[in-house]
Amino acid sequence: MSQFEEYKYFAEDAQRLSERRQNTSQILVTVNTAIFAVSALIVKDFGFRGWMLVLVMLPLFLTGVLLSVIWRRIILQHSLLIGWRYEQLRQMERNIAGSYQTYTKEWKEFFEPHQGKARLGFSALEVWLPRLFLVLYFAYGVGLVVAVATGHL
Q1: CA separation for the pair 125, 72 (Å, rounded)
Q2: pTM of the model
Q3: pLDDT digits (tens, 9 = 90+) for 115-146
Q4: Which domain holds residue 14?
Q5: Structural domain total, the chain
Q6: What CA–CA distance (Å, rounded) separates 150 from 63?
């Protein structure tokens, strides 16, 4: 395999990993949103009240929390894999005669730490989505328990 073929393979593989991470995030946003929709439907239309409502909702919340924790790990693992592949691409660019060094220039412009501060990449932002859902599950769960305990549900 020539250097350029290997470079092309790594670029395609990095793209596939990025797409897989994005697809996983889309699926998990949808699943978490569906959990909240089902929860709202249960509260509104199924007639459960009091602690029975809390017991019915508990498996949904626990599932959502578990999915969010797994989702965060998936994002972090994919970030490491993708970052490693892009580092390999930058190293390969140095050895390809006449290379424009696109990945190296992109890294220096958008991702390389400047003045001792790391720049915020997409993965760093994306990892906040599972955290947001975890906060929502916690807030919704606490709110549900408080509403039941005070006799509002």
Answers
A1: 11
A2: 0.84
A3: 766 665 667 778 899 999 999 999 999 999 99
A4: 3-149
A5: 1
A6: 26
130 close to 69: Cβ distance less than 8 angstroms? yes
Sign for the CA dihedral angle at 114, 83, 3, 8 comes to negative
What per-residue confidence (pLDDT) applies to 24? 94
d(CA 153, CA 42): 12
In this structure, what is the dihedral angle of CA atoms 143, 145, 150, 153, given to the nearest 10 degrees?
90
3-state secondary structure (DSSP) of residue 114: strand
Q: Is the dihedral of CA 20, 81, 126, 119 positive or negative?
A: negative
Q: Average pLDDT of the chain?
A: 91
Q: At what angle do helices 3-45 and 128-149 cross, to 10 degrees?
A: 10
Question: How high is the pLDDT of residue 49?
Answer: 93
Both tokens assigned to 122: 């997409």
